[in-house]
Automatic annotation (TrEMBL):
Gene giving rise to this polypeptide: Cmtm2
Gene Ontology cellular-component annotations: membrane
Keyword Transmembrane in record: yes
Keyword Cytoplasm: no
Occurrences of domain MARVEL (ranges): 40-162
Cellular location(s): Membrane
Keywords: Membrane, Transmembrane, Transmembrane helix
Name assigned to this protein: CKLF-like MARVEL transmembrane domain-containing protein 2
Biased composition (Basic and acidic residues): 176-185
Lineage summary: Eukaryota, Metazoa, Chordata, Craniata, Vertebrata
Membrane-protein topology: Multi-pass membrane protein
Length: 185
């Protein structure tokens, strides 16, 4: 029994072997995350969500230094946790693996309610205080900025709804060909 000598691998088999190795494991997932994050950051969703998170965290910190109604901090913490959930969801590319949920619509609804809750929180904060310290006013302005960023993200989300892709236009037939057909008839 002699061992069969291995045949030299061709270029195509070698690239297939490398592809099979990189397709599995951490490297594949890292490439998947990088590719799914590009539209999130390039289209502006990531920057707007990050700015909204910064405004929410800053307003929570400022409201902690003044005496504010507990409902205001409750609204801010609720919106912060939901925003962090969506931020982590898009950063880790989890939305690509959970395809049974329509993520653009759920993110749109989240931004809509975030904007409404924060505007309602600003109105409540304005009505609940007679004397308004500077820190309190700054926290209200930051809540307004967070609501504005949620509205901007809502406008950016409209482009990514399913079925909203631009349809390729069919090339029009040249006029000469139509005229030639009319002349023959």
């Amino acid at each position: 029994m002699t061992a069969k000598p291995q045949e030299p691998k061709t270029f195509g088999a070698r690239t297939k072997e490398i592809w099979d190795q990189t397709k599995k494991g951490v490297v594949y997932h890292q490439n998947e995350v990088k590719e799914s994050n590009k539209p999130f950051w390039i289209n502006g969703h990531g920057i707007v969500k990050l700015l909204g998170l910064i405004c929410l965290i800053a307003s929570i910190k400022i409201f902690a230094t003044t005496t504010a109604h507990p409902i205001l901090t409750l609204i801010l913490y609720m919106e912060l946790f939901i925003a962090v959930f969506f931020f982590i969801l898009y950063i880790c590319a989890i939305n690509r693996y959970l395809s049974f949920i329509i993520w653009p619509i759920s993110d749109f609804i989240n931004d809509l309610f975030c904007c409404l809750f924060l505007v309602g929180g600003i109105y409540f904060a304005l009505e609940s205080r007679t004397a308004m310290p500077v820190n309190y006013f700054i926290a209200m302005v930051l809540m307004g900025l967070a609501a504005f960023f949620a509205f901007v993200d809502m406008c950016l989300q409209r482009r990514s709804f399913p079925g909203q892709e631009e349809k390729p236009q069919k090339p029009k037939a040249p006029k000469k060909a139509k005229e030639a057909k009319k002349g023959k008839a």
